[in-house]
Amino acid sequence: MIDELAHAGSEHLDPAFVAGYDRKQGYPDPAADLAAFEAHGLDAASVVVDIGAGTGQFAIAAARRFGHVTAADMSSAMLAALRERSAAAELANLDCVRAGFLSYQHSGPPADGVYTRHALHQLPDFWKALALDRIARMLRPGGVLRLRDLIYDFSPGEVAAVFTGWLDHAVADPAAGYTSEDYAEHIRTEFSTFRWLLEPMLAAAGFEIVTADFDGRLYGAYTCVKTTR
Question: d(Cα 4, Cα 25) in Å, to the nearest integer?
Fold first, then answer.
């Protein structure tokens, strides 16, 4: 087994980085993700797991909508921020656990939904496939996976053109978003994969892809349903 902490992104373990994390991320709106779950029948009785929960932008909103939410993250600094937010919101139905894709142990009834945003790319492809299999095993038949990540929707021959455009549109201020240096480091040291490699992994884990939406051929948002097989 690999050391998941070593694949969590060293900056995510730094309290100073975590303090400015939400602004750097651009305060992503969870409304579309909540709606995707609700469109598949999740409601106030549903159990949802958020893996790679970060500071809880989704988990906090989900706990206000669903029956129980477990937020898992490898970073103690992220979990500290999430627990502080949860306490301030007085959310008794939100649990925080220090775990990742390969170490989270689900207990109780099978989950109705699993959410993950910009975290799966931390794992090399072999371990991604195992992570997706573990997610499928914790979901009930018909359960929903909502996956957002940096996923490459282009061919190897298009890499230079797509990456040049990506770097050219980066921000200059690292506090306000991701710079070209941030993107270049992601390409070199993290494990974003091609769409045409990821989608067979989802199928092998027992997921049917219901929707797949891409922004700039780089950011994918998938809604997947666990089949009964």
Answer: 22
Is the separation of the CB atoms in 65 and 94 below 8 Å? no
Beta-carbon count within 10 A of 43 CB? 11
Round to whole Å and give the CA distance between 27 and 139: 28
CB atoms within 10 A of CB 229: 5
Q: Report which DSSP code applies to 18.
A: H
Residue type, 162: V
Task: Give the DSSP letter string of 120-161.
Answer: GGGS-HHHHHHHHHHHHHHEEEEEEEEEEEE-B-S-GGGHHH
3-state helix vs strand vs coil in the chain, percent to 5: 45, 25, 35
- pLDDT, tens digit (0-9, with 9 covering 90-100), for 128-175: 999 999 999 999 999 999 999 999 999 999 999 999 999 999 999 998
CA nearest 82: which of 96, 100, 93, 68?
A: 96
Q: Which pTM value belongs to this model?
A: 0.96
For 18, how many CA atoms within 13 A lie in the half-sphere containing its CB?
23
